Amino acid sequence: MNHIIIRKGHDIRIAGVPSQEVTSVPSSETVAISPKTFRGVKPKLLVNEGDTVQIGSPLFFDKTKPNVNWASPANGTVKTIQFGARRIIEKIEIKVDGFDSIQGQVFTSEQLTSSNRTTILNRILEANLFPFIRQRPFNKVANPKDSPRDIFISALNTAPLSVDLGPVIESEKAAFQAGVTVLSKLTDGSVVVTSKKAMELQHAEVQTISGPHPAGNVGIQIHHSKSIKPGEIIWSVNAQHVITLGKLFLNGSYSPDILVTIAGPGATNPQTVSAKVGASIGSLIVNQDIIEPIRLISGNVLTGQTVEVDNFLGFYDSSVSIVLDSVDRPFMGMLAVGNSKSKYSLTNTFLTFGEKLFNFNTAQNGELRAIVPINSWENVLPMDVYPNALYRAILAQDIEEMEQLGIWECDDEDFALCSFSCPSKIDVGKVIRDGLNMLEAEG
Amino acid sequence: MKWLRDILDKIAPTFKADGKLEKLYPIFEATDTILFSTDERTHSGPHIRDSVDIKRVMILVVIALIPCYIFGAMNVGYQMAMALGQSSTMLENLLNGAMKILPIIAVAFASGAFWELLFAVVRRHPVSEGFLVTCALIPLVMPPTIPLWQVAVATTFGIVIGKEIFGGVGMNIFNPALVARAFLFFTYPGRISGDKVWVSGPDGYSGATALAVPAAELSQDAVTLLDSVTQFDFSWINLFMGWIPGSIGETSTLWIMVGAAFLALTGIASWRVMVGAILGLIGMAALTNFMAEITGSTNTMLTLPAHYHLVMGGFAFGVAFMATEPVTGAHTDKGRWIYGIFIGGLTVIIRSINPAYPEGAMLAILLMNAFASLIDYFVVQVNIKRRMVRYAQ
């Protein structure tokens, strides 16, 4: 079995680590999906305000891939459809009236094993769950017409304050296995599951990985097992969504359950809660005493989106991070020795040794400057890519050079730590995303 | 410090958009954020950020130079007392030396700050903290006898031509402090060329520097020659400790090593450059020693062993604080090795073979500054080639 050792990277010692024991929170009164957050998707509505929807029934589809629909995560009525500028669909909000679903076709594991690609693909499309499958390059919703080289599943989370996937997969082993079998039908290559510890899985190649974040990012795992080439397409599915897909086939219905961590220095009761896809942020943080000023983030602190209490959990997110949003201005802060609870650096420029956790706030901790290359990017990027050179090629809009420097293998989430550690406060990840957008527009 | 914060908050609107002194905003902003850390917050992307910023990086380099400053002051006082034939305590040496070097520091910082602020205001870019390091480095590579007007001219040249015309810190090709020194070196060679020592003392007091001693004689053994000098103690251990005449900060290899270790540990300076330069110097010195033996050359410098090269002249200081400057050096780790090795090797070549300049470290670093991006280019090309081979499979 392949074992990958990641040496570069960093596990940020952020306070508010969630307890992995699962707590249940009262169900969200409304759930929502935000069509505008899906990269490259041109959404077209299938419902109107006031319509009754069933769990799993389609809410909208993608005009560029008309058979890809998005499932309603609950039974109920469409409460609001909110439009933004130029009639961008901001969100489709559904007033929840239960999660009982209509039973569809049930597959036994033998039936699954003997099914062909068309049967499986049609079932996923019919159930409107195809958007759970994303593709590399570009990290966007996959196209069912494509035949991916391989399908990668990361069975470990290394992002700060994320759900510990090991026990989750262990407790849903049958559904996870079914999900893996389902996915193995969709590719001529293999389903590659990367985990912390070895596990017994059929119809998949299991490999193990060790090392700091971003070892859990699927992009890093692809890069270290079989790097993506221009023209190749690889699909990936979040481990929790693999379970959802598995359940769709084993139980015949869509169960929109997801475990979500509520964590961070601003969380008074950091915990893992069991929730539904698209739950409202307010319903997830009921157990927290919110002491303003704080910032709520759907997703992890590196790549998540700022949200408000009345917003909703992102489609692919499985954490709500809460960080302090007040920034003080210490006198002669640049001369500070460190070892306080707020001065954290992965260079040794402050005394931050030991295991202590830090109360991060939203301070940028400095102003935007030109690059002073002290290896802060290279030290946290476990890829055979020169980030500095790639960054400059993107700024120069030189697509050919970007390709030569390996942009096909990159995704902005893998560069988030570079932005975190940059002393010049450059948002490297955003520039990588700009480069990918240029590349995609070029066709 | 609340009172100071209150004052700054009170005058802030004057400098902001539509304020009376809007044009001077960069100066206000610099003062404000140097005194109190910035309150800028993240907008998206990583919502939390590392505490290190460019201010911190630059101020730590300045802190790493403090041992060199203290020793430099003591040494200047000591050399002065020696030249006058007086005996003095360490404290007296420190005070006398400080009296000599403080004006140089003051002039360097005043002229450096003037140009940096002027460019910030005129070109509307934020004041870059890098000038603090440049201004802290310049006095250390000047002899204590330097006229103050030359310090001002050199600093001006270093900041304006070495840095600002390229767009400021992060975009310069040559190390501004070295540009400043090179400027003096070529325009006023009588004061700084490195063959005569500079001691603050009686008029006309002079002697040969350690590097000039073997350079001046033919067909001798360099170490024997150095040991025979009576005016100064040019034994290896004394060269290492630094009680010799020279530029203010460059003489003591010991204290330079302390500063260099600090920079390498904090991760600001690349240890690869330092180790590479030392390896390059040892390798090239071994080669010149060998060549001296087999060719029977009359060049005494060729016989100078590597451990003498390490402690003589400005090599140690240059490698620790100039070659490791991240912006003007190579930007890739492999490139840093090559860059360092070349600096070490070139230093020995310039010292030994070039008869005009006994000191080679400064020129070696400036030359490699020019080649740093070429080295990076080749390192990146190797990466690209490897990738293209993989893509073609």
Describe the model:
The complex is a heterodimer of chains A (443) and B (393). Among the domains of chain A are: 19-27 and 259-363, no CATH class; 132-255, no CATH class; 378-442, no CATH class. Chain A is α/β, with parallel strands linked by helices and 443 residues long. The mean pLDDT of chain A is 92. Helix content of chain A is 22%, strand content 22%. In chain A, strand 10 (134-136) and strand 11 (140-141) form a beta hairpin. In chain A, the strands form 4 sheets. A 7-stranded mixed beta sheet of chain A has the order 1-14-13-12-15-10-11. A 6-stranded mixed beta sheet of chain A has the order 2-17-16-20-18-19, covered by helices on one side. Chain A contains 11 helices and 20 strands. By secondary structure, chain B is mostly helical. Chain B is built from 17 helices and no strands. The longest helix of chain B is centred in the first third of the chain and has 34 residues, at 90-123. The model of chain B has no long low-confidence stretch (mean pLDDT 88). The interface between A and B is large, with 72 and 57 residues.
Assembly category: heterodimer
Distance between the termini of chain A: 37 Å
Query: Beta fraction of the residues of chain B?
Result: under 5%
**In DSSP terms, counting alpha (H) and pi (I) runs of 4 or more, how many helices of chain A?**
11
- Overall mean pLDDT of chain B stands at 88
Low-confidence stretches of chain A: none
- The percentage helix of chain A is 10-25%
The two chains with the largest interface, and their residue counts, are: A-B, 72 and 57 residues
Categorize the overall geometry of chain A. globular
- What portion of residues of chain B is helical? 55-70%
Overall structural class of chain A, as computed from helix and strand content, comes to alpha/beta
Order of helices and strands of chain B: HHHHHHHHHHHHHHHHH
Q: Look at the structure and give the mean pLDDT of chain A.
A: 92
Continuous helix count of chain B: 17
Q: What summary fits the major beta sheet of chain B? A: none
Extract low-pLDDT stretches of chain B. Answer: none
Q: Roughly how many Å is the radius of gyration of chain B?
A: 23 Å
Report the strand count of chain A: 20
Q: Tell me the distance between the termini of chain B.
A: 65 Å
Outline of chain B: globular
